[in-house]
Amino acid sequence: MATPSRYVGTARSRLDGPAKVTGAAKYAAEFTAPDLAHGVVVSSAIAKGRITAIDTKAAEAVPGVIKVLTHENKPRTAWLDYNYRDQVAPPGSPFRALNGPEIVYGGQPVALVVAESFELARHGASLVKVTYDEEVPNTDLAKNRDAAYVPPKKRSGIKPPPDPRGDAAGAYDTAPIQLRQEYKQAIEHHNPMEPHASTVVYEGEGKLTIHDKIQGVNNTQGYVCSVFNLKPDDVRVITPYVGGGFGSGLRPQYQLYLAVAAALDLKRSVRVVLTRDQMFTFGYRPETYQTVALGADEAGRLQSLTHDAVAGTSTFEDYQEAVVNWSGLLYHCPNVTLDYKLAKIDTYTPSDMRAPGAVTGIFALESAMDELAYATGIDPLELRLRNYAERDEGEGKDFTSKALRAAYEQGAARFGWSRRKAEPRSMRDGHELVGWGMATGVWEAMMMQSSASATLTPDGTLELACSTADLGTGTYTILAQIGADALGLPLDRVTTRLGDTALPEAPLAGGSWTAASSGAAVQAACRKVAEQLFGHARSMAESPLANADFAHVTFADGDIRLQTDPSRKVSIAEAMRAGGVERVEATEKVKPSMLTNMRYSAYTHSAVFAEVKIDEELGVVRVTRVVSAIAAGKILNLKTARSQILGGVVMGIGAALEEESMLDHNLGRIMNHNLGEYHVPVNADIHDIEVIFVDEHDDKVSPLGVKGLGEIGIVGAAAAVANAVFHATGKRVRDLPITIDKIIA
C-alpha cells in the first residue's frame, strides 16, 4: 500500500491549540466531583532529624476540616520497597510520604490537612504544630566528593560508562597538547507551568478515577495499585493534557500518594495541589562536578580522552543518568576512560530533567573541546571536523544514520561562522563585547514498545487512541497527521484520544521516543484498518479492485485506488457496505527491532552556534542570536518540531546564564524556591533563534524513520553560550550558570 505524505512532513498548527487557548483543556487540578474535598500539604521545617511531637488539635477544631493525616494515623499501605517502585525508579528505597517520624530532606511532607474547601485546608495547615529533634544536614556535594562511589546496582534503561579503550593515561602523558579542567553544573528545577496535582474521584467500593499530573498514566496506575493493593480494573487514570513536565512528571510524586490515601480513608473524592514552593521539594537536575582531560597532537587530533563525573543523589536512592558516555562516542579517539560516581547528600532524589545527563556531560565535553581549539590555534568547528567519529567507538557499532557534517555545514553557513575573528575580545558592537561560540549536541534515538488503536466509520471519520501523553509537544497533531496520510483522509476528519489507561498502553512520554513509538503504533493500526477495508472492497460484486494486490493500491480522498489506474477505485463507504460493517477498527502493538539495536547505534545530532553581547563594564550577557541545526531523521511536523527546538534552546540559555537552585547548607534547604528568585528566561532574554532541519534518511531507527526532538534542542546550547562568553571576554567560566559576578570577578 502506498501512503503519500499529504500531511506528514508539513507545518501544521496544533490540533489541541484551540482547547488550550480557550480554556476548554482541563488539567489535573481542574477536574471535580460532587463531594470533592481538598488537601493541603504541611512541609517539614527542617532538613534532617525526627518529629518528636505533632499537634493537630487546633487544625481539627476548625469547622470544615475533615481530617489531618500524619505518620501517626495514615492508612495502611504496602510494606515492601518493591511496591513503591515506579517504572523509572532508580535503585534504592523510594520515598514514602508520612511513613514515619524521620525527616530525610528539607520540605518533606509531614501532614495532609483535608477540608471541605481549599481555603479551609490551607488555614488548617497553618495551625499544625510540629516539634523536631533536629540534626545537622549534609547537603554540600563538594564536601562529599571523596566519599563518591560507583553505584552497585545500575538503573534500568541507563547504560553505565563503557569499559575503557586503549591507555588514556599513558596517551595523555605523551600527548604534545594536554588540557585538564573541572566543570560544574548547578542544581536546576523543572518548574513547568502546571504544578503537580492529583484529583482522586472516589467511585465507591474502592474504585478510583484519578486525574494526575503525570507523563504516563500507566505509571500512575501501576504505582497506585501496587502501593494500595488495588486491582488495575478499579483504578482508571485520565490525563488528557499536561501543562509541561520536562521530566518532573515521569515519576508519581507525593501529592498523588497523599490524595489516594485520603480518598480511600475518607471514602470520598480528594484533590491535592502542590504550591510553587513545594514544587522545589522533589526531583531536580543534580549538581555535578566533572573533570575532562584531553590529550591531542599539534593538529588537534585527540589521542586521549578522560571524563570523570561525580553527581549528587539522595540518601535513599541511587539516581543515575548517562553523563560521561557521550564523550566516548561523539569524537574519534583511540584512548578513552570514562568514570561516573555518586555521592549521597540529604536532599530528595534527583529526577530526569530534559536530556538528563547529556545537558551536563556535553557542557563539560564541549567546553573542553573549545579550550582545546584555543590551545591548538584551530577553529572550533574545524577541530570537531578533524575528530569526527564515523562509528560509535564506545559500543563498536555503526550508526543507523549520521548527518552531523551537514548540520555543521548548514548551521555555520546560516550563522556566518566564517566571519568570526579568532582572537578573544576582538569583536565589538559599541560598548558591548561580541562573542561567537559553537558546540555539538547528541541524544539517543530510541523506540519503545507501544500500542494504539484506529477506528474508521463510513463517513470517513477516523479516531486514534493511545495512552501516551502530550506534554505540549504536539503529539495529538503528529499522530493525527500519520493517521490521515495512512488512510487518505482530510486532517479535520481525524481525532486523537490520549492520556487514559482505558486506551491501548503506551510508554511514558519521555526520552524523545514518543513520535517513533506511538507514531509507529498508529501507523500499524491504520495499516491493519486499510487491509480490512481493502478486503471488503475486493469482495464487492464486479469490484474495480477485484484482481488488485494490496501493495498496489493507495488511499486518497476517501477512496481506495489502484496506483496505476486511479479511475479504478472504491470509496471507504462502499467498502464498508460491501463488508456489512458499521466500523473498521484495529489495535496494534509495535516494538523495536532487537537485531537492529544489537547491530547499530542510533542518535540525533545537532550543531549549535551562539552569539552573545556583553556589557564590558556591567558584565550583563545577552544571547542575541542562536542557530541550531538538527539532524533527527524524518520531521513529522515542521511547525511543532521547530517549537520543540526553540523550547530546548531557551532552556539551554537558562541553564547557561540563569537557572540555579541555591542550597543553604546550614539549613539544608533550597532558598530561592519561587519564580521570583529562581530565574528562568523570559521574553526579554530571548532574541533571534533559527532552527534548521537537515535532510537525514534513516530506514533502521524506527518504522517512521523519526528520531525524536524533545531533548536534542537543549543539548549543547549551554556549551555554545559558554564558549561564546569566553570568545567575547577571554574569561573562561566553567561553573554554570554564568552569572554577572563570575564575569566581572
From TrEMBL:
SUPFAM superfamilies: CO dehydrogenase molybdoprotein N-domain-like, Molybdenum cofactor-binding domain. Residues 149-169 are annotated as: Disordered. Residues 22-136 form the Aldehyde oxidase/xanthine dehydrogenase a/b hammerhead domain. It comes from the Bacteria. Pfam families: Ald_Xan_dh_C (PF01315), MoCoBD_1 (PF02738), MoCoBD_2 (PF20256). SMART domains: Ald_Xan_dh_C. GO terms for molecular function: iron ion binding; oxidoreductase activity. InterPro entries: Ald_Oxase/Xan_DH_a/b, Ald_Oxase/Xan_DH_a/b_sf, Ald_Oxase/xanthine_DH-like, AldOxase/xan_DH_MoCoBD1, AldOxase/xan_DH_MoCoBD2, AldOxase/xan_DH_Mopterin-bd_sf. Gene3D superfamilies: Aldehyde oxidase/xanthine dehydrogenase, a/b hammerhead (3.90.1170.50), Aldehyde oxidase/xanthine dehydrogenase, molybdopterin binding domain (3.30.365.10). PANTHER family: DEHYDROGENASE (PTHR11908:SF153), XANTHINE DEHYDROGENASE (PTHR11908). This is Aldehyde oxidase. It comes from Methylobacterium tarhaniae.
